[in-house]
């Protein structure tokens, strides 16, 4: 049952061939069996999950209407607030924080009767590309326990890949959904900026952050997007765009659809195995009648420096709220108020978080603001304009998600620049605020390879159309052997 | 542009952070590597380019000016490391 899809479980529940309680218990069993090896979970809400499953079963038995994700076990990245539960962002500074409210996505999941089964590990405050920056533990890649699951939503990707839950939520600031999805062989979707409310997501870089789902297939991805998308008055950046039924985009004819391959995303630095598998998927697209052509996005190469300036600047501002006064860790010994701030923050934050706060503070400081922050905002505009021009020429853009398959622990951990390059194909999408998916299309040296499909603003449906067609022809059915 | 230990000290003060001497050494190195990487933006001609804050068309977000329920005081104080009589407690600020 562990590797069934959420939509299959949904059918079984409706036909009463299985009960929600059985499904949830089986997920908990699986977690007990494998999580000691992969360490995806920070906490499992065993009793609550079983209680909630029982009430779904009661509703079904009484013929009451149930939500679209009724009885399906899922888990959330630990930077999404869940009322009366801890939300730690895998940081010492929030280790004792209990959320007094639900994030909007959590409220929507509860209304859809999904069963939230636990909290998932991540890089501290979502800063990282390997989940090695968690201050709690390292999550391992289910395909090879010596390798990273990607980051920062490593726990979210690994839990779905390992069959512990049927789907999960993560957050994507520079690729933190798509890159771990790619490294763990699952589907990971970053919606258009504003499509999903960020209310209750602990902010890292507010102009780039977006919540999105991890699933095992494209249909499940559409199902979860149906639940979590939509305008929210509690998030002022939430877009006023109608919620569509994304499942209607699946299994469509893609003949004549124009697909662009940006030559810059296939060049230097992309592993041969990754290139090979992505090119195979592109060949499949051609067979289905898509019009594939090479395009050029030369500004993309500036995305990483723009990203590090903008995200660090916003992080330095967002993370100023962690001062040991209203919530979070407070140092035991201090001399005065300022010393309380300094000691609490210096002990509470991990080294990558401090590095980024420092970089951001520097970029925003007087004398450097124009040279770094303002310059980055100007280049951001050029990147956006370049994408806009590209979308006049093509409907969708396809590229590798990650330049390499899952790498070994420690391989990049000591060199921030090397680590940052893991996100080279995903970051431009966040700078522009576009939607994009990563889906598994093959294996290289036994490890999953992800294909990225980028769409124009609010064109999630088009992305899902193409993804579902590729999925059928590629038929990725690898499962980790744990 | 590059930074030295003195500048690291200054930025740390602004960011309300402190570092050991070893950490500072490492920091100067990392910082300069990252800044060097970021310097490539200088190649881009942004002479007549406006800055871009939002991704797509900016919109105003307004709602009716009516009082809505906010978080209860008890909930707001739930995670306070130190509190007294319904307030957050901090060390004395004025002599």
Automatic annotation (TrEMBL), chain A:
Residues 22-464 form the Amidase domain. The active site is at 77 (charge relay system), 152 (charge relay system), 176 (acyl-ester intermediate). Heterotrimer of A, B and C subunits. Pfam families: Amidase. PROSITE patterns: AMIDASES. The gene is gatA. GO terms for biological process: translation. Belongs to the amidase family. GatA subfamily. HAMAP family: GatA (MF_00120). InterPro entries: Amidase, Amidase_CS, Amidase_dom, AS_sf, GatA. GO terms for molecular function: ATP binding; glutaminyl-tRNA synthase (glutamine-hydrolyzing) activity; transferase activity. Keywords: ATP-binding, Ligase, Nucleotide-binding, Protein biosynthesis, Transferase. It catalyses: L-glutamyl-tRNA(Gln) + L-glutamine + ATP + H2O = L-glutaminyl-tRNA(Gln) + L-glutamate + ADP + phosphate + H(+). Allows the formation of correctly charged Gln-tRNA(Gln) through the transamidation of misacylated Glu-tRNA(Gln) in organisms which lack glutaminyl-tRNA synthetase. The reaction takes place in the presence of glutamine and ATP through an activated gamma-phospho-Glu-tRNA(Gln). The keyword Ligase applies. GO terms for cellular component: glutamyl-tRNA(Gln) amidotransferase complex. Its EC number is 6.3.5.7. The keyword Transferase applies. This is Glutamyl-tRNA(Gln) amidotransferase subunit A.
UniProtKB/TrEMBL annotation, chain B:
It is an enzyme of class 6 (ligase). It catalyses: L-aspartyl-tRNA(Asn) + L-glutamine + ATP + H2O = L-asparaginyl-tRNA(Asn) + L-glutamate + ADP + phosphate + 2 H(+); L-glutamyl-tRNA(Gln) + L-glutamine + ATP + H2O = L-glutaminyl-tRNA(Gln) + L-glutamate + ADP + phosphate + H(+). GO terms for molecular function: asparaginyl-tRNA synthase (glutamine-hydrolyzing) activity; ATP binding; glutaminyl-tRNA synthase (glutamine-hydrolyzing) activity; transferase activity. GO terms for biological process: glutaminyl-tRNAGln biosynthesis via transamidation; regulation of translational fidelity; translation. Keywords: ATP-binding, Ligase, Nucleotide-binding, Protein biosynthesis, Transferase. It comes from the Bacteria. HAMAP family: GatC. This is Aspartyl/glutamyl-tRNA(Asn/Gln) amidotransferase subunit C. It comes from Caloramator mitchellensis. The lineage of its organism: Bacteria, Bacillati, Bacillota, Clostridia, Eubacteriales.
């Amino acid at each position: 049952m562990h590797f069934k899809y959420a939509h299959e479980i949904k059918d079984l529940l409706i036909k009463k061939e299985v009960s929600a309680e059985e499904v949830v218990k089986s997920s908990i069993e699986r977690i007990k069996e494998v999580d000691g090896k992969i360490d995806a979970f920070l906490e499992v809400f065993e009793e609550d999950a079983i209680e909630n499953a029982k009430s779904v079963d009661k509703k079904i038995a009484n013929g009451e209407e149930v939500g679209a994700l009724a009885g399906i076990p899922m888990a959330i990245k630990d930077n999404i607030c869940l009322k009366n539960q801890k939300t730690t962002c895998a940081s010492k500074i929030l280790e004792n924080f209990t959320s007094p409210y639900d994030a909007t996505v959590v409220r929507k999941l509860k209304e859809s009767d999904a069963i939230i089964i636990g909290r998932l590990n991540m890089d501290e405050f979502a800063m990282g590309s390997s989940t090695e920056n968690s201050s709690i533990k390292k999550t391992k890649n289910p395909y090879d326990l010596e390798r990273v699951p990607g980051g920062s939503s490593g726990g979210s990707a690994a839990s779905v890949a390992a069959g512990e839950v049927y789907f999960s939520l993560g957050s994507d600031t520079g690729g933190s959904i798509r890159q771990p999805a790619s490294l763990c062989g699952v589907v990971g979707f970053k919606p258009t900026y504003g499509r999903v409310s960020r209310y209750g997501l602990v902010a890292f870089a507010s102009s780039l952050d977006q919540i999105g789902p991890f699933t095992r297939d494209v249909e499940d991805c559409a199902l979860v997007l149906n639940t979590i998308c939509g305008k929210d008055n509690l998030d002022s950046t939430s877009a006023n765009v109608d919620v569509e039924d994304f499942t209607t985009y699946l299994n469509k004819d893609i003949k004549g659809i124009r697909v662009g391959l940006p030559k810059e995303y296939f060049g230097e630095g992309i592993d041969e195995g990754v290139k090979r598998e992505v090119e195979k998927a592109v060949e499949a697209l051609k067979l289905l009648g898509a019009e594939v052509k090479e395009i050029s996005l030369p500004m993309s190469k500036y995305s990483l420096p723009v990203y590090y300036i903008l995200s660090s600047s916003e992080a330095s501002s967002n993370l100023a709220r962690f001062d040991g006064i209203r919530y979070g860790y407070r140092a035991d010994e201090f001399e005065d108020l300022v010393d309380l701030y300094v000691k609490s923050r210096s002990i509470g934050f991990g080294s990558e978080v401090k590095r980024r706060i420092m970089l951001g503070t520097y970029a925003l400081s007087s004398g450097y603001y124009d040279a770094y922050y303002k310059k980055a905002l100007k280049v951001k505009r050029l990147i956006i304009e370049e994408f806009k021009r590209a979308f006049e020429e093509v409907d969708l853009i396809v590229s590798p998600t990650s330049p390499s398959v899952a790498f070994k622990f420690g391989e990049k951990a000591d060199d921030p620049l090397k680590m940052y390059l893991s996100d080279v194909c995903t970051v431009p999408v966040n700078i522009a605020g576009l939607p994009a998916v990563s889906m598994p299309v093959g294996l290289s040296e036994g490890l999953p390879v992800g294909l990225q499909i980028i769409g124009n603003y609010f064109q999630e449906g088009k992305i899902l159309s193409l993804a579902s067609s590729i999925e059928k022809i590629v038929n990725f059915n690898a499962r980790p052997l744990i | 542009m590059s930074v030295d230990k003195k500048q690291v000290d200054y930025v740390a003060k602004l960011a309300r952070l402190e570092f050991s001497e070893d950490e500072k050494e490492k920091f100067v190195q990392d910082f300069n590597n990252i800044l060097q990487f970021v310097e490539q933006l200088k190649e881009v001609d942004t002479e007549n380019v406006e800055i871009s804050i939002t991704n797509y068309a900016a919109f105003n977000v307004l709602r009716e000016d009516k009082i809505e329920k906010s978080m209860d005081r008890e909930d707001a104080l739930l995670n306070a490391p130190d509190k007294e009589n319904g307030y957050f407690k901090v060390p004395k600020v004025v002599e």
